[in-house]
Amino acid sequence: MMVLGAALALTLASALAQEGKTTTFPLVDPQTDDPVLKPIFDGMRARGAGPLHIHRTIGHAPEIYKGFAAFATALRQPGATSRGDRELIILRTTQLRKGDYEFAQHRRIGLTCGLTEAQVDGLADWKAKSVYSPRQQMILAFADAMVADGEVSDDLLARVKQTFSPKEIVELAMNSAFYTAVVQFSTAVRVEPETETTSYAGC
Hints:
Blueprint: H1 2-20, H2 37-46, H3 53-58, H4 62-76, H5 83-96, H6 100-112, H7 117-121, H8 134-149, H9 154-163, H10 166-189
Helix pairs in contact: 5-6, 5-8, 5-10, 8-9, 8-10
């Protein structure tokens, strides 16, 4: 009985260890012939910019990926805010959400869009840093409220509205909200980081 009990304990321990392991989610073939994915992936490869693992993961549902890609592209189009402003709120959002995959990608992108290494690397303790302009400080406070606090206070929103136009606020808030969702997804399915260099989405 003691031997049986020990064997059972080892089996349970092994099962628990297996549950704790990170599993790699399967990736769609980048050379896929899927009629929805193929033109999008072909276009990325022609630009030397993907598809990335996140694309090849969401690509298991082609129509959802098509909508995802369209929205992500819309968020990068010229707008009232600069790409640097938008990358700043994306970086702070993904940092707060512990989205290591997204933060690594957008660190690279942010540096091509005008952010400095000191600004990117100082985000965890941004209030104590002198490398951010008053506008950037307001963006970071807005991100902290949306993500860390879970609620933007009336006082903060009033100050945000004094700094930014309605269009700018929508652009910033939608970028933060979108990447909150992306981090939740990629963390849930264990999207693995790339090992190769890409120029995807850079400025």
